[in-house]
Amino acid sequence: MSNQARRDYWQEAFALQGSITPHVCWNVLLFGLFASCIWGLTLLTEHYTGMHLRLEILPFEIAGVALGLLLVLRTNAGYDRWWEARKLWGGIVNQSRNVAISALAYGPRNREWQSSFIHWTACFSHVARCSLRSELASQETSLLVGPENSELIAKSEHMPSFVSLKLALLLHQASTEMNMDKFSFLQIDKQRASLIDHIGACERIAQSPLPLVYSIKIRRYVTLFLLLLPFALLYRLDNDWLVPLITMLVANPLLSLDLIGVELQNPFQKQNLDHLPLDALSDKIEGNLKGLLATDLSELDGSH
């Protein structure tokens, strides 16, 4: 385990795939270029006019601490949204299983009804994923419920609600035509409704990003700090040629934290780094539910 941990450390320390570094490197280089210009301008000004374009370092030390706290707070806010979204999708996984288990155990032993109910339940996670990503119904949906139903889902105003309505109608059919008792009907329908609660909470996250004014102010402070930093480094450093390098070393974590906070705001979009693996979760739900459908319930009923 320790050898694997060491290998993972070095792999992740130098990994580019999944890293924020490629996304901020150009901005880091721009600040380094600006610092080089300031260094050259300072040398020329001091040589020809005797003026010193240098600033005290103390205000930057204080401002750097405050700026770091602001960036960490926004990163934590973004992570809270990511983690809440993951918990909600964990709820979708669990509730999908609960709905399927209850329907198979307490619902009618009509094989056609069971197959239809399980396939529509598995369909919910796929349409939920597509809805959060503003995509049309996926190919998995067509394979589960047929092309015609998939087209109806795609045309609906809210795809998860359409699938949930279909599940409610199947439960109503089982209650009125197939002798499902009212208590089982109410319990399964309550679990079905909780799926809509989970997707509604996910939509709240997707449609309510962190306030734009907060992002604008932080980025203005970061930019101002990094633009003025070379003047303070010229005051402190004996070797002026280090100013561009140190400016880039400071810019990299600041810009990385800023972008990480932005990337974590919407954990559902595929283009975002570390987005939630909704495809894998949907496939997992489908596989679990199809496995339940393949179970021989008569053998379970007769077992002791």
List descriptors.
rod-shaped, mainly alpha, single chain, 304 residues, 12 helices
Describe this structure in words.
The structure is a single chain. The protein has helices at residues 2-13, 21-48, 58-106, 111-132, 139-145, 147-155, 159-177, 182-207, 212-236, 243-263, 278-293, 297-302. With 304 residues, the protein is an all-alpha fold. The longest helix has 49 residues, at 58-106. It is rod-shaped, with a radius of gyration of 28 Å. The model has no long low-confidence stretch (mean pLDDT 86).
Short summary:
This protein has 304 residues and is mostly helical. It has helices spanning 2-13, 21-48, 58-106, 111-132, 139-145, 147-155, 159-177, 182-207, 212-236, 243-263, 278-293, 297-302. It is built from twelve helices and no strands.
How are the SSEs placed, and which strands pair?
Layout: H1 2-13, H2 21-48, H3 58-106, H4 111-132, H5 139-145, H6 147-155, H7 159-177, H8 182-207, H9 212-236, H10 243-263, H11 278-293, H12 297-302
Order of helices and strands: HHHHHHHHHHHH
Radius of gyration: 28 Å
Overall morphology: rod-shaped
Largest sheet: none
Instruction: Calculate the mean pLDDT score and round it.
Output: 86
What is the helical fraction, as a range of percent? over 70%
Strand fraction band? under 5%
Number of DSSP strand runs: 0
Count of individual helical segments: 12
Span between termini: 42 Å
Q: Regarding quaternary structure, how should these chains be classified?
A: single chain
Poorly predicted runs: none
Find the structural class using helix and strand composition: mainly alpha
